[in-house]
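To whoever is on call:

I kicked off a structure prediction for a single chain this morning and the downstream step that reads the tokens threw a length-mismatch warning. I double-checked the sequence; it's 125 residues and nothing unusual in it as far as I can see. Pasting both halves so you can look.
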Amino acid sequence: MSYKTASPDRYGLLKGFARENRKNSTLAENVLWGYLRENAFGVKFLRQHIIGDFIVDFVSRHGGLIIEVDGGYHSEPRQQYDDEQREEALERMGYHIIRFTNEEVLNDIEKVIDQIEEYFNGTDK
């Protein structure tokens, strides 16, 4: 899994955006972060982390997993296209991406946690 951060000319801008994203997390992101930050899966997660020219919601660099929590605008055709391009780039870097909707996190957190556990049970972390 290759790891790179943004080009120096963009890193400062992305770092500011990531900081704002952490301050203004959605309820669903906060709920999921409550589980992830406790090291519940035996791996460390980072939130609103820069990888390449992207900011991902959550990442376990050691485990190679990116978790995205999507709001309603992710159902828009243009956003779906952008998400596909972004996923392809991150997968080329060696990451696996799991996406959840806000509703899945808020209404069925047990299923979300089970899917994350399934990923780690099938990898060597």
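Update from on-call: the warning came from a stale cache, not from the record. Cleared it. Sanity check on the structure: Strands lie at 46-51, 54-60, 65-70, 96-101.
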